[in-house]
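Milestone M4 deliverable, item 7.
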Amino acid sequence: MAPAHAPDRMWGRMYAIMTARRPSSPKPCGPGDPATTMRRDLLRRLQRFLFLISLFLFLAIGLLAAQAAGYTLPSPTVLFQPESPPQPSPIQVALISGHAGSDSGAVCTGTDGAATLTEAEVNARVAQRVAALLAAQGVEAVVLEEYDARLDGLVADVLLSLHADSCVDYTGYKAATRQVSLVADQEERLMACIDQAYPAATGLVYHPFTVTRDMIGYHAFRKIAPSTPAAILEMGFLGGDKALLTNHVDRVAQGVAESLRCFLSTR
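Output delivered:
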């Protein structure tokens, strides 16, 4: 026979089972959960590591391929050398003696049709005289032919091509520069110096509305270095300005030389 207190013990066990606290279920992991954040950071670090490894392998393969193909890479000392200061142009003034070594240019003829004056000879006399005047002032100048091989990539402080206009009864000078230029501001100053010094020395006035496409599209403009400011000058008309161009070469040359000295002083 069971002890008298057995039912009490049995009911006590049942009560304990019924009232026992169940363990709480784990909370779902959200974006702010520390475990989730840790896993995300670890994943990012792993991605960065894999990216760096891939980049290193890509560069190594590229280097090996370049060496196999015979290419050599510059050394770091070459890549990181400081820029050297700009050097002065080897030539200060380049003069083109219009039509020299090519053809006669414009021609004046007598009543019998024979040539009495050619543009090329006028241009040559002025160009040589200008070079002499500049040299006397310590300015280095070279005289080039119309299609001189030295025009290709020419680097100079300034280039001026000297020409004379046709043998008609007009008077005046005109000048032109490139339509599109990397040194447009310098060429504007060159034109301003010509307009100031040349008429002052020669007494000629600017001849309007006669700048031609051949002047604007002058072949030498396309050959010289883009950094070289340049212009073409029609010094006068062989017809109306013949006396000036042939009998007063010093005045013409003085006007050209002063134009160039004016420009060089503004650089």
